[in-house]
Amino acid sequence: MECKNCELRQRQYYCVICLKNHLRDFRLQTHHFSSDRDEHVARAFRAFNSIESSRLQIRAEIVRANRSLEQLVDGLAKVKRDCETKRDRLRTLREALAQRRRTLNAARLLPPQSQTLTKESQELSVLSQTIARARSGLVQELVEVFHVVEVGGRPAVGGRPGTKGEWTIGGLVLPVPGDVRRYPPDHINAVITHSIHFLGLLTFYLGIKLPFEVSWSCRKLGVGMPWIGAGQGGESWAKWVKKHPMHLTSKPSSTPPSPTSSPSFTPASLADSEAPEHAPAHAQNQSFTTGFAMLLYNVCYLAHTQDVEIPLSQAGDALGNLWAVCCSGELGRRSHSTTPLLLPPTPPSFTLDFTQVLQATAASPARAVRIRPGRLVQEADIGRMRSERIVEEDGWDVVELGGEEGFG
Length: 408
Description:
Blueprint: H1 16-109, H2 119-146, E1 148-151, E2 166-169, E3 172-173, H3 185-206, E4 212-217, E5 225-230, E6 244-245, E7 261-262, H4 281-305, H5 318-326, H6 354-362, E8 368-371, E9 390-391, E10 397-400
Antiparallel strand pairs: 1-2, 2-3, 4-5, 4-7, 5-6, 8-10, 9-10
Helix pairs in contact: 2-3, 4-5, 4-6
């Protein structure tokens, strides 16, 4: 209530009865609201319980669905793996079927007698191809070790004919028979020895038996000198059983050699036939020429076994022919030791005769005139003179004036 004197609101006073009435009304309202509240709480609790059970059911259904999904994914992956495996097997079966069809078609095209090939023969053919590839690799390494290369030469340019180079082995030139006298004996002996070693290893790798066999005389620290003679055979070359030297001597010796057989690539005995070094120089040169011809004949026969045909006009180029053998596409496919087997030397298909090679090797490429060093040769009846100056042991020079035609 508001005081009229101080104009301030003052506390309102109630009587006891009014307060009791107000308290009674307040308690009634509180009881009424409490009942409503309890009712609403009970409803909410019941609703919450129903929602919680539904939520748990939904969660359980979700878990079951996830498990089912995982099982389906695993099953799908397994089915995919099975499909891939079956697809690979089907591809393999198709390839095998196609290969069998091709083999069957190829067998139908073959003659009737060729249709009896067995599995063993096919495996033998594969093994032969593998051996041929291995031989080819060994031959390539052999060429690199002995350093067989062609030096010099000039290609054809501007209509001018080219010139051939010289073949070397181990850095030494192996001349054709007509040019042997242009080189000192030590050079010829060294290059011939290299060539014999190269040819021996080459035939050993390829499994080829040559008509003429090389043997060695133990004279110098077990190295020895090479000799060559015919091996066993029924052809015309087989009668040349006498051993001929494959080396030159700068000075004739007064004592004959005592070559004891020291087998290298083909063992042979020299006791029954050998050319004594105390023989005349002309006889020694003829014997060396015969041995050189035997070496050239061996190279030509080796080329024939590897499907490389060497004409007589090119038989004197030994290193060039060996290079052609090493580059042959049929290298190592046929031999005397593995299938397909070759016929013993020499078969009828090899038409080159040793007598022809010997005649071409022994033919003088020019007529030599001996003059004193420093003198000039003047002959009016000689046309265009091709001269080469050769220094010999006795101080004489040799001037080539022309003559018969050989390998040179």
